[in-house]
């Protein structure tokens, strides 16, 4: 450390800045009453919590549970919700996307007013609202009543076999079959509440952290925060997979012995939301105990501004409603900010769509069980997302604070290249599609019928199309159900006297066993798919801290929270909201057999897998390629902006030096005149 012209110059010690500046916490807390507690209850024994480290633990726990429920449970349970409430993929995609509608409506106001208000209150109340939304999401489970699988409904307790009914070709009708609007509405409102509560978490949370720690330490705190945000979904998939091994009503009806491998099995999805919502309500109390700013934060901020580590405030923006439009216009005029936002949004559109259906893809493409697919997703999320964020935070922290904006923008371009390469994972071959009579191939002994699966040999069986219950005939062909195979008897898990199955022995009629033909628990190609997926996740989430660094360093100091909020709005409007709906429509567009009961259509029972994965692959290359282009444009304009600022700074220094020389000449003249 040296002194020049009476000013302290500590540039040489920049790398030694600790994670938290050493300040007199007790003195600051007493002067401003910035102590930990609630209202007038602020006991001394709780003041050990008054630190940036404890705060990041609190909001990280909030983001962890929020990520576990909203991004973990919901994405894993979509297929379960389809089956339980007979919803289409587009409908469950809408349910998943509705979480972002509240964010679109509220993020601008929360981030703008939260910047000038008490961020802690916004965060604490947000945790409560998110918890209430989780608890409301459980309500349809209580309204729908006990689950009645096909095998125990309508007199079909013997295994959904053919019941000859003369010339009557009508099927047994299930009450309330098909997606009921009120279930969708309840899910929609619950997701709105969860989205509204989390609005402050991802805008005011990072801003509060950045304001209360030194800029050199900010990337590390942000990395911890975002790592917990991403660790939540990982645990959500693993824990959710375990919950799906529990029967939906905890106990099965008497005489029913379904297993998790049975197509009619539905797991206890609702238990996760019940626990998560309760925990979030408790977490809110921990967050609300923090003051609106931590002791020493002002000194940290003043030092950072003085040393030029962060942009100065825009004095024209004062936090009034009339300032909202000028603040927005100023952000839009920044090409660095806009192209960075568009790049993130392009990735979010694809990521949100895939995340909503990734468990379903593993089950359909590779034949994995709901439990195992949940475990796999949870396992790959941890190294791919958390590892990426932590490494990204460490790398960004090594950037020179003076050039962190430019270096972060360049880093984003490089990382996005690997994301494009990893998108080819969708073209990895799956386990093949089993042949199903009437869906992928014609019945072997019948040429006429009402539609694909209803033909002459099963026309008088009054078969239900509500839920697929596959059996494998001895002719090595799978059938939609024992009834549609024309099977009239069942003994010891074997269906006999099947009129639609060509016998392979001297018998006049065929037989069948439960399940698809040749279907195993999965094939090994899923390993290559998982490896590619880890690469994609790692290259996407290693950019999390760099993206925030670009935003926080390219806008005025007092617009940082609003910039994050505005960016989040664009992400949600153009990415998170349409993504699940778009990809749900892609799934529905490749459905070749819908569930149906007396004219009411339910959820899809069979997809054309090869066409589905091809469409997903082309979508992935398109969106990730677009993101790469936008990142490059952001970096390009970043270089131009920095060069312009350096030129302006140089002109100011020259002007200052000229004035100093003139002043020195004036002083010399004055001294000369006084001497004369």
UniProtKB/TrEMBL annotation:
Q: Where in the cell is it found?
A: Cell membrane
Q: Name the GO terms of the biological process aspect.
A: monoatomic ion transport
Per the UniProt record, which residue ranges are transmembrane?
Answer: 45-65, 85-110, 122-143, 181-209, 221-248, 268-290, 337-359, 371-396, 408-428, 526-546, 616-637
Q: Where is this protein chiefly located?
A: membrane
Q: Which residues form the signal peptide?
A: none
Q: Where in the numbering of this chain does the Kazal-like domain appear?
A: 451-502
Describe its membrane topology: Multi-pass membrane protein
Which residue intervals are annotated with compositional bias (Acidic residues) in the record? 665-676
Q: Where is this region: Disordered?
A: 1-22, 648-676
Q: Highest taxon of the source?
A: Eukaryota
Family according to the record: Belongs to the organo anion transporter (TC 2.A.60) family.
Name this polypeptide is given = Solute carrier organic anion transporter family member
What species is this protein from?
A: Pocillopora meandrina
